Amino acid sequence: MKIGLLGFGVVGRGVYDITADMDDIQVAKVICLEDITLPDAEVTKDFRSILTDDSIDTVVEAMGGLHPAYEFVRAAIEAGKNIVTSNKALVCTYYDELIPLAEKMGVQFRCTAAVGGGIGWLSELERSRRVQPIERVGGIMNGTCNYILDSMTRLGLGYDEALKQAQALGYAEAKPATDVEGIDTWHKVILSSNIAFGVSLDSTTVPVAGISKITAEDVTTFTEHGYTCKLISTGKSSDGKYSAYVQPTLVTVGQPEAAVPSNYNLITLVGKYSGRMSFFGQGAGRYPTAYNVVQDCADLLHGKGFYCAYGEKVAAVNDDLLTYYVRGDLDAWLEDNTSERWGSAVITKPVSVSAMHNWLKEHPDAFIAAFAENTL
């Protein structure tokens, strides 16, 4: 396999390093905007030099972002080249376009590192769905949020202090909104649900609530009542209906999610026969992520394409009834659905996920956290 590598940042450099001593996988050309020299690969700023090179059969996209990553990946597919990417935003945003196009062109497309970094979650999900219906997927999918929430819980830090610490350690970006507002997790649960259930979820029907409005007082209140707050994603399939959402969630000490430390992930599937299976590990990092990119390249050599056939477009219903902790301005709807008060916050009666998130849209400064169900 000869690879055209798009990007030479954290993940791209890791892919190059891992493949350096491999006999059957070679990085032949690298797109890099900086002037660098590599001993065994051509460095170029011109994507067309990869696109028109017939010796390159696989393009590895490690640029991140949507543009020009989308344009490059689409062009590579149309040129008959296989694709491996770690870009969850790209795959989720253009799922309805890129996956059918890869099928049409007869090329292979893998993106295992897009969810879970070094865990290999999507490849395990692929193996599981071969022999059983998947009923549920989700869990802790973002290391930045987990680090912040873990630091607030264990160390008593405020949100701003925990975020600055995460940024200093390289766990959070200078502009962290994609992580802390739940968008990164949102992309991951949509992609996971698509593969688990063999559908294409309408992303506009998948609500998301992040952690940026949480306070130290919230965390103290949770601890006093025996709960830990985590940002948890959920995707469900039941009787032909689908649910998917991302929200802060209160878990008790006995639940596995409560013990997940630092920037780790814990991603779970519930299968008809296997029951619950959870996968724990680093959700990011140069070599853990690059390892799964290279594993995808090895899978291509063995004829493995995408994890499932492209499925029908479906809407998430999100009619699960959950109880919520809500700190925000009371209005008539919230008053009518309040069962008790925890200080300045209220605990709701069971309300649907969709109703709670619709309320949150009208009260963007509020903070909500669902009480976890017994299992993911």
Question: Could you characterize what this model shows?
Answer:
The protein is an alpha/beta fold and 376 residues long. The protein folds into two domains: 2-110, NAD(P)-binding Rossmann-like Domain (Rossmann fold, 3-Layer(aba) Sandwich); 132-282 and 310-371, Dihydrodipicolinate Reductase, domain 2. It has 14 helices and 19 strands. The longest helix is centred in the last third of the chain and has 16 residues, at 286-301.
| Beta strand count | 19
SS summary, helix count: 14
Instruction: State the distance separating the first and last CA atoms.
Output: 39 Å
Strand order, sheet with most strands = 12-11-7-9-10-19-15-17-16
Note the topology.
Layout: E1 2-6, H1 10-19, E2 26-31, E3 42-44, H2 48-51, E4 58-61, H3 69-78, E5 82-85, H4 88-93, H5 95-105, E6 109-110, H6 121-129, E7 134-140, H7 143-155, H8 159-168, H9 177-180, H10 183-197, E8 200-201, H11 216-224, E9 227-238, E10 241-252, E11 264-271, E12 275-282, H12 286-301, E13 313-314, E14 321-322, E15 324-327, H13 332-336, E16 338-342, E17 345-348, E18 351-352, H14 353-362, E19 367-371
Helix pairs in contact: 1-12, 3-5, 6-10, 7-8
Tell me briefly what this model is.
The chain has 376 residues and is α/β, with parallel strands linked by helices. It contains 14 helices and 19 strands.
Offer a few descriptive terms.
Rossmann fold; Dihydrodipicolinate Reductase, domain 2; nine-stranded mixed beta sheet; 14 helices; 35% helix; 26% strand; globular
